[in-house]
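Feature request, filed as a ticket because there's no other form

It would be nice if the structure record came with a short human-readable summary line next to the tokens. Right now we just get the raw output. Example of a typical job, pasted below so the devs can see what we mean:
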Amino acid sequence: MNALGAFMRWPESGAVFSLLGVIAFFVIVGGVDLMRLAGAASWVNFAANLGIVAIPLGLLMIIGELDISIGAMIPVGSMSTAIVSGYYWMPIAVGMAAATEFGVLVGLVNGILTVRTSVPSLIVTLGTLVAMHGIVLAGAVLLTGAASVPLVSPPSTKFVFGQLIGGSHQVIIVWWIASASLLTFVVHFSPFGAWLFAMGGDKQSARNAGIPVRGVTIALFVLSACSASFVGMCQAILFNSAQVSGGMGFIFNAIVSVVVGGVLLTGGFGSVIGIFFGTPTFAIVSQGIYFTSMDRNWSNLIIGILLLIAVAMNEAFRKLALNYRPSKPAKA
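Raw output as currently delivered:
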């Protein structure tokens, strides 16, 4: 019981139980073959692309900020790579650098405007979301005359960023696990993580304690924008083309994954591991319906109910974690 109680105090405990609950629902109610579900590429690929975006977004939410410009940065990353290296035939490294530079630029704009003005980050990133959608559409039509651009990548680049492992699993899964592992170490085993939670509790107190609040905030916005741009770049390399549409669904999906992963919208609570487990939870909820014999017309209703249950479970375990008090040993 002590071990269970200790585990339930962790921010990621709710995400783990939510994932197990969602899997149990599809196995028991939907009659899904557990081995077939575990080996399916659809939800894993979905989770990997979403997870790379969700973790930096979750870190921003821990400090009390939000970035919805990720919905535009995914097509920006794919289109900039395709236009530079597909339409103008420049080396693929130049196209990838262009995608990264756009991520850094937009992240800097988001971060600087957030820390230097009183405008909430939601409004700031809404502005960059709309602006970047306009830029990528107008730029694509102006430069190429089309809203879709083909791209042929060298085999080495394809192998690292756009390969299908075993013919079904995208190599971005490796990038997802690697980025989650790295950020887990940075957030939970370095002073930087303590800064994030201090900022989520009270930015002014964190600033008074010597934490570089502005610098950390700007850095996280840059990380968020670059991560979304990276996903778009990998998609362009994988599918050999890029389109100006797409990416908007990532906003809702990423926020839900982060919340299911145990991060509070008010900030100050959460973990990278929780977000990591929250992402496949959402992916299985979204894709699991297709492994059952249920009527597909009910899919959105089932997805909505399961997500509400998962969030409720996460909130319940969070309260248990906060209210948990270990029993004192009996006196002799």
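Something like this underneath would help us a lot:
Residues 72 and 134 are 9 Å apart (CA to CA).
The first helix runs from residue 2 to 8.
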